[in-house]
Known about the structure:
The structure is a homodimer. Chain A is of the alpha+beta class. Chain A has 16 helices and 21 strands.
Amino acid sequence: MSTTATDLVGDLRAALGDDLLVTDPDLVGGYVRDQSRLTEHGTPLAVVAPRSTDDVAAALRWAHAHAVPVVTRGAGSGLVGGANAVDGGLVLTLHRMDRIVEVDVAGARAVVQPGVITGDLRAAVAAHGLFYPPDPGSVAFCSIGGNVATNAGGMCCVKYGVTGDYVLALEAVLPDGRVVHTGRLPVKGVAGYDLTSLLVGSEGTLAVVTEVTLRLLPAPTTPGTLVASFTGLTAAGAFVAEVAAAGITPSMLELMDSTTVTAVNAMAGMGLDEGVVLVLAQCDGPGATADLAVLEKAAERHGAVDVAVSSDAEEAAMLLEARRIALTALERVAADTGRQWLLDDVAVPRERMVELVAAIERIAADHDLTIGVFGHAGDGNLHPTLLYTDETVALAAFDAITAAALAMGGTVTGEHGVGRLKRVWLGRELDPVADELHTGVKRVFDPTGILNPGVVR
Amino acid sequence: MSTTATDLVGDLRAALGDDLLVTDPDLVGGYVRDQSRLTEHGTPLAVVAPRSTDDVAAALRWAHAHAVPVVTRGAGSGLVGGANAVDGGLVLTLHRMDRIVEVDVAGARAVVQPGVITGDLRAAVAAHGLFYPPDPGSVAFCSIGGNVATNAGGMCCVKYGVTGDYVLALEAVLPDGRVVHTGRLPVKGVAGYDLTSLLVGSEGTLAVVTEVTLRLLPAPTTPGTLVASFTGLTAAGAFVAEVAAAGITPSMLELMDSTTVTAVNAMAGMGLDEGVVLVLAQCDGPGATADLAVLEKAAERHGAVDVAVSSDAEEAAMLLEARRIALTALERVAADTGRQWLLDDVAVPRERMVELVAAIERIAADHDLTIGVFGHAGDGNLHPTLLYTDETVALAAFDAITAAALAMGGTVTGEHGVGRLKRVWLGRELDPVADELHTGVKRVFDPTGILNPGVVR
């Protein structure tokens, strides 16, 4: 570490106190990047682990005064390099701010610190008969703060929407240390600009969120589950398209191609049918049984090899787990076969999902690559996962998939965010004037540009 | 008109062409204000009625070059002075841009110009088996553009949310004439800052929206309707609170106090029970019948004088119409009794609605005023309507109601917007730092401050 860096750390230590700092290089190493691949990360000056909003404000004031960049980090489960350290900057890890401050049962709201693990919050409110829908694949280890930063989705979205749909109010700290409160408690309200929605999904580039007030729903009925297998992605996609056309809104509508199913079986011995594309659907609420019967018929009409409907909670849990471990299972296949993996996250208008799937199959063939396809079919949001040995080929295929989604009126990121991985692609998606507005908005919140430089703006 | 003004109008005419200008003072008079009371309006330089995005851009470029303020106007049905002309400014009325550009049935989306009447859009998509939920009280004569500008709500919100929940993408023109596109077609997407949500509800202060892409739902089942009468607002409020606690999400949950019911009967001879508070609920979807049975029991438990459940569409339409004409009926009572009226729009956390109702009753007694209370009980969003002779007394009561809502963790506007009527109150609701961010955001979009000066920021 240079003399200047040592001086800076000393100064930081004096400002924040020893207890909030992690400077041991061995420990720091655990905080320098998220779970993305092919994204850069730097060597931070220090890792700061605040315990309170005041601590966050103190750290930001210090960083602002010294023009030191700050990368905020939730649980580090991101997939686009949105929490990767930059050289000479601070990593602000919020894992110690993990308190569920309040569950207001009568008001159906929860107030939480950003470090609360999403699955823990879901369990805590379920104990009161309430439901916090957002359920990213990483629900067991991702944090609410990270979910807010990326406006995370998950399997619930087809019926229940994304994280932002549940954020009523935020407390956040601006880069100069000022604390701001946005939003409100009532479910309706139009006083002023929607700064809450502006902060949601801003990937730590505008402010550091230190408290989140979430809207909760009444617990839904136990869902019924349908699993249908198809000989190809196109038939599966056509079935998915028919679900929406039939006016049915399942509470889950997921897809796994045969590559993914084989990987899941290999990892967890789940005994899923292989060589087929699986579609998993759940319906909850009083119309669930009727809806599932309609879906069952539709699956048969679209040539499903096998369809099973079950109200068995254990079987449903097993199928969900199969879907949830898709990425991990594909990662393991890559490791076992000496390959690397790279995950994409694209979304297209729902009615064009079949086209997207066809494009991915074509791109896999053109680049002679294995691409495992799984994702939130009901939202048109897929996660094609490339298994590769040659990085250049992988990046070409990755770009081809992203370009294909964009050309279909889609988006370069459905739910993972832009981070460092998709920054070039954001420029391609945004209208040039919208791009200029991004720069302007960034300057309002973070005039000196210390927050997460290299991400979004 | 001064020489300078005449010169300016000549210049504007040369820039835009005769056809887009309304300068006849008699006609201009119809465009100078919305339907609010006790809000100021000025004398505009001219009214511009564009036919296209290009026309809007030309008008804004001209205004920007000449530092002339611009007030954008939808159908003029606003209730807070958000579309009131300012002296020497342009009124940009978008009523000619009233085309439903596309209804994409497979994609469940509609693309519309801002001047489309909300009710017309609802009917147009219903013809395709689709549903556009937002239904402000003024649904028959308000415009989508105005709904977007105020993030309008209505009776659907308790289940289906507000206008912003259906806006996928926007085309808008910045004050300097640049056209910007925000948002995207997929239902999920997190690429960049949420500029769409920032524009929704910005009341014409950031940009002029020229095209709106809306998400549609499958048509719901015909709802069942419950009407319950209570001897007082407190019992009615307690019933409403129980609905949420029972985990039931009605598709409508409205309240009218006895003052309002009497006014409605007087206007439309609907034969509603008088001297009681009415709660109207609707439930749709496959669980509707079961849900209504639960609500019926709950109403009885809370001492309802009368409860009736009906699946008769005509009876439901009559009850909805009764609720829809509440404001007009109270206006008529005011006119018939030599009084004026003033409408408030406050929302509180749902569980505090009973408290809000009690506060309004107390304020009415304290100020010796008739206050008709009606509104979206299921959202905690009420529209207390003051009938008064003394403006000072009315304003004192209005302020007392707004202050009471704010003190309950509520908001000074649930769905009508800030406009000119609530500008002082916005300052009281916003955190000072959020207030500064509003100013900053305004400057990014409208650096010279020509868009709707005196509103929001």
